[in-house]
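Figure 6 in text form: structure in, sequence out.
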């Protein structure tokens, strides 16, 4: 009997029984890269020169500081520094200390706990040091770090007179993010995650949606939510396991706007979701679901206020059963309900106000109709474990005199919910998210990914790095190949960053498939316009989804290549689950292998061969004061050029490059 089977894992579903099997699995993916095969076959626990841990005791992890506010501030400082290192293309500092000259004779000195080839560095407490002295310096908070880094970036960003305004905005958002993160950490420390099944509403899907306590590891203000009170935060925040009722308006039918690719129309769906405790719909109206924060906000907007006063829009108030916010806040989920709702929410969350645009609503229907035909059948035949979470209907209001292309704050997406209460469907960002609290046994909590890998290793009796590398290879097959197939065979590139990506796991925690969500995040390649038009006449006319191939290449490389895949490698490395150099070599082997070639996507060659990659710069985007959902896709955010760690693994070399320009796409 194999050790896997002896540990409770069926041999036929867990092909990691011995090193020979593992060596064979890696060889299949890395046959074109002998270095990958040699490294992965031995799967060393020690870190390589490219990504190694500095000798800092784990108990000194600043994220585990007993004061939740200090832990939150340290997390914010780490995010700022990761952004700065990436966006200014800094290399690994000598001596295990990052030293940044700030001007005026000041130096920011930060111990490096872990240097990541993929960008997920870990840092200790930052100190402000007089540059020419031997003084050890003074601890410095995240808001001060943000302001000092922002001031230092002014010559590079060409902000000139706008600099003070943008610096103040950044500092304010950092402070807001730290304050909210401290509350999230304190709440989880008081009540760590309950076991699945002990709380009626907690499903595996919702559990991972509520797991992002610290947020995007390469964003300067990951938890900034300006305009949300403490009471509202408790109800609307997934990190606090919030829940709230929907607020309902009724809109006269002559003002209502809607579309549906389902047998039932959007108005029938929303009417079924209201519950029976609300007032009846006035005659000749349809039910419009709203986020409660947005409902209050809308009553102060002139166009909406006039419709309410004229009796053409009716405020019905809250009703129904509670809905639970997912990781985006504005998409809400009610376990047991066939639909989720992606609501308009005018809060500034990270970089943008999250109000639905009409073109995005059209895009969701286009994709559903496209995949409901021959393309979807072809895709499912090749990759039956993967699909798009569909947005097949929407409902809203045509505000009199308003620009139909602009966000009106009222429109809502009706999203299908394909997950049952027992389905192991996990947001990838939630799976890898660090947990800055202790377990019930008093030991530091691992990420959900860490728990998975350690459990698999314990059951099989095999080294943790070996199991981690195999899980990663399975993940590439289950959740990445299908995304490459859709690009190569159909010309549709997905904005598949970690928060938009869901992985499906079997009963043992092994990847078996995935889902992609987000009607904002589709790029139709202009070179494939004819073929897509033949599949769905009129596609793209209302949604504005076609982009030049060069734009699709840049976005696809960033969202899937850098944010998603390199971010996953960095999570494995920084959490001491695997050696990043092994995973990078395995990723190269996967990209160079026959399965990736069969997808016909151009992304594998780009990631393998390009010495540099274009990378979204969240800190610089913030310093330019950009809202990433406003304006043309080519100029919504700042992109910089960074060295490609996959090319470095493969032997290519490139010097530091520090160019940047505005370029589009959120997250």
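Output sequence:
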């Amino acid at each position: 009997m194999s050790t896997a089977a002896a540990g409770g894992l069926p041999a036929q579903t867990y092909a990691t029984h011995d090193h020979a099997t593992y060596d064979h699995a890696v060889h299949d993916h890395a046959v074109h890269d002998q270095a990958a095969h040699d490294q992965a076959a031995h799967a060393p626990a020690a870190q390589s020169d490219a990504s190694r841990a500095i000798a800092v005791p784990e108990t000194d992890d600043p994220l585990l500081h007993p004061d939740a506010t200090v832990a939150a501030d340290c997390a914010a400082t780490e995010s700022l520094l990761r952004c700065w290192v990436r966006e200014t293309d800094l290399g690994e500092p000598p001596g295990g200390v990052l030293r940044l000259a700030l001007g005026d004779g000041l130096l920011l000195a930060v111990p490096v706990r872990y240097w990541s080839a993929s960008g997920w560095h870990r840092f200790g407490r930052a100190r402000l040091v007089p540059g020419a002295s031997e003084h050890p310096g003074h601890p410095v908070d995240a808001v001060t770090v943000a302001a000092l880094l922002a001031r230092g970036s002014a010559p590079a960003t060409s902000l000139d007179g706008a600099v003070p305004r943008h610096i103040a905005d950044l500092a304010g958002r950092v402070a807001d993010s730290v304050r909210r993160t401290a509350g999230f950490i304190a709440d989880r420390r008081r009540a760590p995650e309950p076991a699945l099944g002990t709380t009626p509403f907690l499903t595996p899907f919702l559990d991972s949606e509520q797991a992002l306590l610290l947020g995007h590891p390469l964003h300067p203000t990951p938890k900034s939510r300006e305009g949300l009170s403490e009471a509202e935060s408790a109800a609307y925040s997934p990190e606090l396991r919030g829940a709230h009722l929907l607020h309902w308006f009724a809109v006269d039918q002559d003002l209502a706007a809607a579309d549906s690719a389902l047998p039932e129309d959007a108005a029938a769906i929303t009417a079924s979701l209201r519950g029976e405790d609300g007032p009846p719909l006035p005659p000749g109206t349809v039910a419009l679901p709203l986020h409660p924060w947005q409902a209050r906000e809308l009553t102060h907007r002139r166009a909406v206020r006039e419709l309410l006063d004229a009796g053409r829009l009716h405020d019905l108030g809250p009703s129904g059963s509670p809905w639970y916010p997912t990781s985006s806040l504005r998409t809400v989920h009610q376990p047991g309900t066939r639909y989720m709702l992606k609501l308009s929410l005018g809060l500034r969350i990270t970089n943008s106000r999250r109000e639905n645009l009409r073109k995005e609503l059209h895009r969701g229907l286009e994709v559903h109709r496209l995949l409901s035909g021959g393309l979807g059948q072809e895709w499912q035949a090749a990759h039956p474990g993967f699909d798009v979470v569909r947005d097949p209907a929407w409902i809203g209001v045509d505000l009199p005199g308003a620009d139909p292309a602009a966000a009106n704050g009222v429109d809502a997406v009706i999203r299908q919910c394909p997950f049952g209460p027992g389905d192991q469907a996990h947001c990838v960002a939630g799976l890898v998210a660090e947990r800055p609290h202790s377990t019930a046994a008093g030991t530091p909590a691992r990420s959900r990914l860490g728990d998975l890998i350690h459990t698999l290793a314990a059951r099989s009796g095999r080294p943790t790095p070996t199991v981690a590398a195999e899980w990663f290879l399975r993940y590439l097959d289950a959740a990445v190949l299908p995304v490459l197939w859709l690009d190569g065979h159909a010309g549709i590139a997905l904005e598949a960053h970690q928060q938009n990506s869901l992985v499906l796991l079997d009963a043992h925690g092994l990847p078996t498939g995935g889902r992609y969500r987000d009607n904002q995040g589709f790029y139709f390649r202009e070179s494939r316009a004819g073929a897509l038009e033949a599949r769905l006449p009129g596609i793209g006319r209302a949604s504005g989804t076609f982009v030049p191939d060069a734009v699709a290449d840049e976005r696809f490389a960033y969202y899937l290549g850098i944010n998603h895949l390199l971010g996953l490698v960095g999570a494995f490395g920084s959490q001491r689950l695997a050696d990043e150099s092994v995973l990078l070599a395995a990723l190269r082997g996967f990209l160079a292998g026959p399965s990736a070639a069969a997808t016909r996507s151009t992304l594998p060659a780009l990631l393998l061969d390009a010495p540099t990659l274009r990378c979204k710069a969240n800190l610089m985007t913030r310093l330019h004061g950009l809202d990433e959902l406003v304006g043309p896709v080519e100029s919504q955010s700042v992109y910089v050029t960074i060295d490609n760690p996959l090319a470095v693994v493969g032997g290519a070399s490139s010097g530091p490059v520090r160019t940047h320009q505005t370029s589009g796409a959120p997250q």
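Caption detail: Residues 31 and 475 are 18 Å apart (CA to CA).
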